[in-house]
Amino acid sequence: MTPDYGKTFKHWRAGASETPDAPWHQYTRHAFVEGLRDGSLPHASFLQYLVQDYVFLVHFARAWSLGVVKSEILEEMTVCANTVDGLVNHEMALHVKTCAAVGISEDTLFNATEAPENLAYTRYVMDAGLQGDFLDLMAALAPCVMGYGEIGLRLKAEAAPNTPYTDWIDTYSGAEYQGICTTVGGMLDAAVARRLGCLDASPRANALQARFTLATQLEVGFWGMGLRGA
Ligand SMILES: Cc1ncc(CN)c(N)n1
């Protein structure tokens, strides 16, 4: 079942599910994800993904901070600031703890060299926010937030009992992360209504959908990097 993260996400998700190659499906059902689910993902692949993902989250926290800058009202600012807190102080704790257990320090994580797929994704999102307005930024950020929420919930329900990746699954299916998805989804609906009225009828609908779909494709590339090795 698709989680309810608001009607804007539902609309964009549908838009990324209708094209022949269905980027949303490729993202949320990627072989990397299925490897987390059934436990077949090699641990070395998981670790090198986590190292890249730590750096990814540093840049995503920067992009959500840009959301504070581009907010028009305090409620938007609050959600963006709380999301930065969630990324930096909670989600990244998974990466730090898992990597520390195999001797990878936080310093090593912070200074890791970015893989091209990582660089492309994070800088695309940052550029969407710098070049565009709050909604351009949110359309590029939404697949990251909600996609992992959707994946986390599905894997929580479907994971093999002996998968070694339960910490990862619990992080993204847990109340804290799910709360962020729901709150961001609600804020997004209000932000769209405030700026565009009805999303469907807006002349910006296609451009925003294109941003969401491209960010989804960049998520697919990120999983691919994880499987291949950075
Ligand atoms: C690449 C990627 N996309 C999304 C998430 C979830 N915040 C993440 N940690 N990494």
Quick gist of this model?
Catalyzes an amino-pyrimidine hydrolysis reaction at the C5' of the pyrimidine moiety of thiamine compounds, a reaction that is part of a thiamine salvage pathway. The protein has 230 residues and is an all-alpha fold.
Provide structural commentary:
- There is one protein chain.
- This protein has 230 residues and is an all-alpha fold.
- It has a single domain, classed as Heme oxygenase-like (Heme Oxygenase, Chain A, Up-down Bundle), CATH 1.20.910.10.
- 77% of the residues lie in helices and 0% in strands.
- α4 packs antiparallel against α11.
- It is globular, with a radius of gyration of 17 Å.
- The model has no long low-confidence stretch (mean pLDDT 96).
- 5-(aminomethyl)-2-methylpyrimidin-4-amine binds next to α4, α8 and α11.
List the helices and strands and how they pair.
Elements: H1 7-15, H2 23-28, H3 31-38, H4 43-70, H5 74-100, H6 106-110, H7 116-131, H8 134-158, H9 166-173, H10 175-196, H11 205-228
Helix pairs in contact: 4-5, 4-7, 4-8, 4-11, 5-10, 7-8, 7-11, 8-9, 8-10, 8-11
The structure holds 5-(aminomethyl)-2-methylpyrimidin-4-amine.
Catalytic activity: 4-amino-5-aminomethyl-2-methylpyrimidine + H2O = 4-amino-5-hydroxymethyl-2-methylpyrimidine + NH4(+); thiamine + H2O = 5-(2-hydroxyethyl)-4-methylthiazole + 4-amino-5-hydroxymethyl-2-methylpyrimidine + H(+)
EC number: 3.5.99.2
Keywords: Hydrolase, Thiamine biosynthesis
